[in-house]
Specification:
The complex is a heterodimer of chains A (702) and B (264). Chain A is an alpha+beta fold and 702 residues long. Chain A is built from eleven helices and 33 strands. The longest helix of chain A has 48 residues, at 2-49. Chain B has helices at residues 6-15, 20-39, 45-51, 57-77, 89-95, 100-133, 137-165, 169-190, 196-204, 213-248, 258-262. Chain B has one domain (6-262). In chain B, 76% of the residues lie in helices and 0% in strands. Classes of the chains: A alpha+beta (702), B mainly alpha (264). Chains A and B meet through helix 6, helix 7 and helix 8 of A and helix 2, helix 3 and helix 6 of B.
Chain lengths: 702, 264
């Protein structure tokens, strides 16, 4: 029994061991598989849960619908290293007219473990109905997603930004149609693109140094002022801040020290209602390079300078200090000094005119391989096929030729067809087209860049254009939106910006409009003299101007090519150099030698007319003004993977200057000033025109 | 496998010889050339971009190729078009001891080779159209595959017609024309997934708008699957008919003669 029992036990143990062995192997295998699965799935799950998104829309989380606004997205990574993409999806467009338009702004995102990064986008939220959707993607997978409800973050008024530690300008808040909303953003969160200030009416700076801004932030601020922004800087005891390089470059005067002002002088300058019981110190100004708008005796209190189309004001006193912090008239003083325009124009202009891109492509006259070539090719091929049937290949020696003769024609003609109708005559692939209008701002070194950007391909598939040279904000043409022909776009920001359309159709022109402010230094003055205009031109833009013309006082003068860096001074006589033109017929000078027929609108003309209409002008360049035009290379160029794309481009420089009468100083730049009759800026009264020329007299021998 | 099958060898040899079938093939190429002609883009690029509709040259040529190869395959199946030295399916069944499976395999492969030959003849036209129309290679490949599978189906349909009707030329011709018209127009209209025209339009035409080609793939696969399935059914029907023919004439054939005919 024992033996049996032992045996039984042993057997039992053996049996158990075998069973246990198999079971444990299976368990081990299952464990290994589980571990493998976990090792694959866990990092992804952890990564997905370890990424947080936080976003600030506009300034202090307040934005104005229908205007470009900065969006600061902060991504926090608590997991492992992350390499992916950050995407902001903005849904807009008119849903009653067509489907909503979805624009995706994308940036590459590299984040180490336990780190965070803030990235700024410039977006255009057109309405409040759709939230902004922010995603972090990696390896084709969504790691995090956040939806930003816009309904709780908007302001319908224009924005007034106050950059100050403790100034309170709340009295400027006004909820009327043309009202203001005063916001106090942190200077370090200011836009990195000038268009981010689209909703901003003015900026007030007090006791804050611009040196704290990043290079791109300061450049954005500078460009915004140049294209029409208003910066008001408050003086104060800490005037050393105002002598820092960045502010010194912008300010219309330099603070030299402090000056004591008595109450009577201040009350005479401001108002009797200003309650001054003790002397007040204001900044003593020197090196004034603008217009003094308010003074007390010989002391300048408010100085203003035009910078491009914008203005910089320097208030020599502390706007938030004694006695101005308690003065009721401060609101009036601010509004009078800022002189805010009644309405803000949206960045997206209505455009009912024909597309300049279509005009550009028409002018280039690109054709498909000729019908006659195709006909000849087919006849040859069919003839050869027929001949191979008809010519007898008899006899044993040439029997091997039979299959050769049968297939020789297709074998020869197939590659020939590919080469002849493909790479040789009609290369396959994508093409970029740009029409640019560059309008230099006076006295700023910047120019407005209006852009029409198009891509098309003669084959189906994804289209992605990488570019460089400009950083425009891009938006679909309004006309396309009205017609319900909107398409979704992906816009890449960062070191290699790109545009990408979701429409894969071939032979479709995908167009975007864009705006930017670029560095472009071109100064000119036109002096209206007895025999004709005298032009002084300094081309420091770094670009050569081709086919240049000066249009002034009913005449067009051909200037030819103006090299980069050239300084030109030319006396132009109406009789010998001028071609008589009319108010509308002067457009003829925009046709380059490679241009198309006279019935066709030149792309540049369409752009100029559009700008002229947008500004409500009639008879461009207008009485007392001269217009200098010339062609140059487009600032926006395909780059990276798109560098080899064929391109069609046209860029017109149009500088409009106020003419200086007769014998006025030849060295003064005749720019448009902010305010007519601003003597300190040297802006003279416009000259009297001698008569108008007929439109029919526009013929010229180009 | 191909070279060892006498039916395939016969097709390969037949393709190198002259005959009426080659002239018929030339006629098909001529029709396709006419399609190239008519649909060749006559506008400038600017006009095409303005209309947002690319040239339909490739679509037209592939549609023409589909129709013509289908017609050609039907007539070849009905043995109205025979390559020089080629023998009929009934001859192979009744006059040789070859297994029906081998005959059918050879028949199908021979049809495939013949269709490829027609594609080679059309290749210059296809490439011409491809360059100006701007198609994608994968869509082009789908269309070629569809043409081949469809041609196989029609070839087998032609064979069924021939085996059912025998050598009645006029009736057979009307039957195959009716078959082609019915399948191409009413059936294609009511069930677009079975239509080669709709298939080509889907793969190359305007419906390729905002979605990548891969999204369209299920429809394309559907067409191929349907025609492959129908071809299998048709092949089974042919097999059954041939089997019946062989059984009916069992013991009557001496197994000689065809080998001599096949020999070059």
């Amino acid at each position: 029994m024992v033996a049996n029992g032992d045996m039984f036990t042993v057997q039992g143990r053996c049996g158990q061991h075998r069973a246990c062995g198999e079971q444990s192997r299976l368990q081990r295998l299952a464990g290994v598989l589980l571990l493998l699965a976990l090792s694959c799935a866990l990092p992804r799950a952890m990564a997905a849960g370890a990424v947080d998104i936080a976003a600030v829309v506009g300034f202090t989380d307040t934005f104005r619908p229908g205007h470009w606004t900065p969006l600061t997205v902060t991504v926090t990574n608590r997991g492992g290293d992350l390499s992916g993409e950050l995407e902001v999806q903005v849904t807009g467009g008119d849903e009653l007219r067509g489907r909503p338009l979805v624009t995706s702004h994308r940036r590459d995102l590299e984040l180490h473990r336990d780190s965070r990064k803030s990235l700024q986008f410039t977006v255009l939220p057109q309405g409040l109905a759709h939230p902004l959707v922010i995603r972090v993607r990696s390896g084709g997978r969504e790691l995090a997603r956040a939806e930003i409800d816009l309904r709780t973050r908007f302001a319908s008024e224009r924005l007034l930004l106050v950059l100050s530690r403790n100034a309170d300008l709340g009295f400027l808040n006004d909820s009327s149609v043309d009202g203001l909303r005063v916001l106090y953003p942190h200077p370090e969160l200011l836009p990195v693109h000038w268009r981010g200030y689209d909703a901003v009416a003015a900026i007030v700076l007090r006791g804050v140094s611009l040196e704290r801004l990043s290079t791109s932030q300061f450049e954005a601020l500078h460009k915004w002022i140049a294209q029409g922004g208003i910066l008001a800087v408050s003086g104060g005891a800490d005037y050393a801040l105002l002598r820092s390089p960045r502010l010194a470059a912008l300010l219309p005067a330099t603070p030299l020290g402090m000056k004591r002002m008595d109450a009577a002088a201040l009350q005479r300058a401001f108002s009797a209602s200003l309650d001054v019981s003790r002397p007040v110190h204001v900044n003593r100004l020197g090196a004034v390079r603008g217009r003094v708008r308010l003074r007390a005796g010989d002391t300048a209190l408010i100085v203003e300078r035009a910078l491009g189309l914008g203005r910089v004001l320097y208030l020599a006193f502390d706007v938030a200090g004694y006695p101005f912090d308690r003065w009721e008239g401060m609101r009036g003083l601010w509004l009078e000094s800022l002189r805010l325009p009644a309405t803000m124009t949206s960045g997206v202009a209505e455009s009912a005119s024909p597309s300049p891109l279509a005009a550009l492509i028409r002018a280039e006259a690109i054709y498909f391989p000729a019908f006659s070539t195709a006909f000849l090719f087919l006849i040859l091929y069919l003839g050869l096929l027929l001949a191979s049937e008809a010519i007898p290949v008899r006899g044993t020696r040439r029997r091997w030729l039979a299959p050769v003769s049968r297939w020789a024609a297709p074998v020869l003609f197939a590659p020939a067809a590919w080469l002849l109708f493909g790479p040789a005559a009609f290369p396959r692939g994508a093409t970029a087209a740009t029409v640019a209008l560059i309008e230099p701002f006076p006295d700023s070194g910047y120019a407005r860049l209006g852009l029409e950007l198009g891509v098309f391909s003669n084959r189906s598939g994804a289209l992605r254009l990488e570019y460089q040279g400009a950083e425009p904000v891009l938006y679909p043409p309004r006309q396309a939106q009205r017609e319900g022909k909107v398409e979704d776009w992906g816009l890449g920001a960062g070191p290699r910006p790109f545009i990408e359309t979701s429409d894969r159709r071939r032979y479709v022109l995908h167009a975007l409009e864009g705006e930017d402010v670029i560095a472009f230094h071109l100064d000119a003055s036109v002096h209206d003299e007895t025999m004709g205009p005298r032009l002084v031109l300094d081309n420091a833009s770094g670009r050569t101007l081709e086919d240049s013309w000066l249009v002034f006082d009913g005449y067009a003068y051909e200037l030819g090519s103006i090299a980069a860096g050239a300084r030109v001074e030319r006396r132009l006589a109406r009789r010998t150099h001028g071609v008589e033109v009319g108010k509308t017929s002067w457009w003829q000078v925009l046709r380059t030698s490679s241009g198309a027929s006279a019935q066709m609108l030149a792309p540049a003309q369409i752009m100029l007319e559009r700008r002229s209409r947008a500004r409500g002008e009639n008879g461009y360049p207008g009485a007392g003004h001269a217009l200098l035009i010339g062609y140059t290379a487009s600032p926006l160029q395909p780059a990276g993977a798109s560098a080899g794309w064929p391109r069609r481009e046209g860029a017109l420089v149009a500088l409009r200057v106020a003419a200086i009468p007769g014998d006025a100083s030849a060295n003064k730049t005749g720019t448009e000033s902010v305010e007519r009759g601003d003597g300190e800026l040297g802006n003279p009264e416009p000259p009297q025109l001698r008569g108008t020329a007929g439109d029919g007299a526009a013929q010229q021998g180009k | 496998m191909m070279r060892s099958n006498p039916l395939v060898t016969e097709v390969l040899v037949g393709l190198t010889r002259r005959g009426k079938a080659q002239l018929d093939a030339l006629g098909l190429v001529l029709l396709q050339a006419a399609a190239v002609f008519v649909w060749w883009p006559k506008d400038t690029l600017a006009q095409v971009l303005e209309s947002q509709h690319g040239p339909h040259t490739l679509t037209a040529v592939i549609m023409a190729l589909g129709v013509t190869t289908a017609y050609f395959a039907l007539r070849a199946g009905a043995e109205q078009i025979m390559l020089p030295g080629q023998h009929g399916l009934r001859d192979w069944t009744l006059a040789t001891p070859l297994g029906l499976g081998r005959i059918l395999r050879g028949y199908v492969l021979g049809q495939f080779v013949h269709s490829l030959h027609l594609l080679v003849l059309s290749s210059p036209l296809l490439l011409m159209a491809f360059t100006v129309s701007g198609g994608e290679w994968d869509a082009f490949g789908w269309c070629m595959a569809a043409t081949l599978v469809q041609a196989l189906f029609y070839r087998l349909c032609g064979a069924i017609t021939h085996l059912a009707m025998g050598q009645h030329g006029t009736e057979s011709l009307y039957t195959i024309r009716t078959l082609l018209t019915v399948v191409y127009i009413p059936v294609g209209w009511f069930a677009p997934v079975t239509s080669h025209l709709a298939f080509t339009w889907r793969a190359l035409g305007e419906s390729m708008t905002t979605q990548p080609a891969i999204v369209e793939t299920p429809d394309l696969v559907g067409f191929l699957a349907i025609y492959a399935g129908l071809s299998v059914l048709a092949a089974l029907a042919v097999h059954r008919m041939l089997l019946r023919e062989r059984r009916r004439t069992a013991g009557r054939h001496d197994g000689a003669g065809i080998g001599e005919a096949v020999a070059p």
